[in-house]
Design brief:
By secondary structure, this protein is mainly alpha-helical. It has a single domain, classed as Cyclin A, domain 1. Helix content is about 50%, strand content about 0%. A two-stranded antiparallel ribbon has the order 1-2. The termini are far apart. The N terminus and C terminus are likely disordered.
Length: about 350
């Protein structure tokens, strides 16, 4: 037995029997209660006039939105939102220091071809990475998707000895994972399988995705060289136009360096120092108008000065300077096409051509 108190408290309480759910013939309290308790209603075709009118208005709004978003081919266009530039984050004084510290947690052993891998050769890795770059460019993904995918690939190759037949599978699985991390609308499995010329099945792709995630314990997001560009350029107090131009060129250089295994021995911080110094010095990004070119190449853009601006605790300045200068000279040789002791490129760009090579 229980009592039901009606709203308002003006009516007298009535004692009603509690229905027994085990007996279908038990007395229902519907007739004894002065007011029924509200129930959760599911959307149905029959509703109250107010609800029906509001639903009609909502349907009209939806239909108008769909009609306005339809293309001439009567297909709905998907509108994706993008994050906006936040100067409070980009210009925070502790941003660069935190990024430099976090970049050390995902450093890659660049000597894994000699120390670990038995079947994978450096040129095989380079060809797969170039193919990954073409896939990302054709899909017009975010600027961060490609370097994030290559980072996942190199981190896995630096600790796990793989069979050469699985190299392309790991490459497309890395793109698949990176698109889920970076993109608002990630790539689907059908698209990824298509770019492998159907040499990989959807089941193999999903299985490799779980293998990579399980190996990294789902910690696949890492600080990249691209993330260091904006905080480093902010130190030099460049104008907005010059800063945007320099940032675009530096990120393009980073993508080129990812396609060459010779730069794996250098950390993300060393690469950021060398590329930033080269771009700012070579392309004369300076606000000193009217000066000759040699005067525009200010000393503040030199490697030694950049190192002094982004030093961390327990840093050996001489060691960092030597690595940055070696990376700088290697970058100049790469841009001039002078690779010492490098075998000629096979110019393999399509999945069919890559698959024809017996990995």
């Amino acid at each position: 037995m229980s009592s039901v108190q009606p709203p308002g408290g003006s009516l007298k309480c009535q004692t009603v029997p509690v229905p027994s759910y085990s007996s279908p013939a038990s007395t229902s309290p519907e007739n004894n209660c002065p007011e029924k308790l509200p129930e959760i209603q599911k959307p149905s075709s029959q509703s109250s006039p107010a609800t029906s009118s509001s639903s009609k208005n909502l349907k009209c709004q939806k239909s108008k939105t769909r009609e306005s978003s339809k293309s001439p081919d009567s297909e709905e266009t998907l509108i994706l939102t993008k994050t906006e530039y936040d100067p409070n984050i980009e210009h925070h004084p502790s941003l660069l220091d935190n990024l430099l510290k976090s970049s050390t947690h995902s450093e890659i052993n660049g000597f894994y071809f000699d120390q670990l891998q038995t079947e994978i050769q450096p040129w095989m890795r380079d060809q797969v990475v170039k193919w990954m770059l073409e896939v990302c460019e054709e899909q017009q993904v975010n600027l961060r998707t490609f370097p994030q995918a290559v980072d996942v690939l190199d981190r896995y190759l630096s600790v796990v000895n793989i069979d050469k037949n699985n190299l392309q599978l790991i490459g497309i699985a890395s793109i698949y994972i990176a698109s889920k991390i970076v993109e608002c609308l990630p790539l689907n499995t059908d698209t990824c399988v298509m770019y492998t010329d159907y040499s990989v099945t959807k089941d193999q792709l999903i299985e490799m995705e779980f293998i990579l995630l399980a190996h990294f314990k789902w910690d696949v997001y890492s600080t990249l060289s691209h993330d260091l560009v904006s905080p480093i350029l902010f130190i030099f107090n460049l104008s907005a136009e010059i800063k945007n131009q320099a940032a675009g060129k530096i990120r393009c250089f980073f993508d080129c360096l990812l396609t060459e295994s010779e730069f794996l021995i250098y950390s993300k911080r060393i690469q950021a120092i060398a590329v930033t110094s080269y771009v700012l010095t070579k392309f004369c990004f300076s606000s000193d108008a009217g000066l000759p070119d040699y005067a525009k190449k200010a000393p503040k853009f030199r490697i030694k000065n950049i190192i002094s601006l982004i030093q961390l605790e327990n840093d050996c300045e001489e060691e960092i300077l030597n690595q940055a200068e070696n990376c700088y000279s290697l970058l100049k040789d790469f841009l001039k096409g002078r690779w010492k002791g490098k075998p000629p490129s096979l110019q393999l760009t399509t999945p069919e051509q890559i698959e024809s090579v017996h990995f």
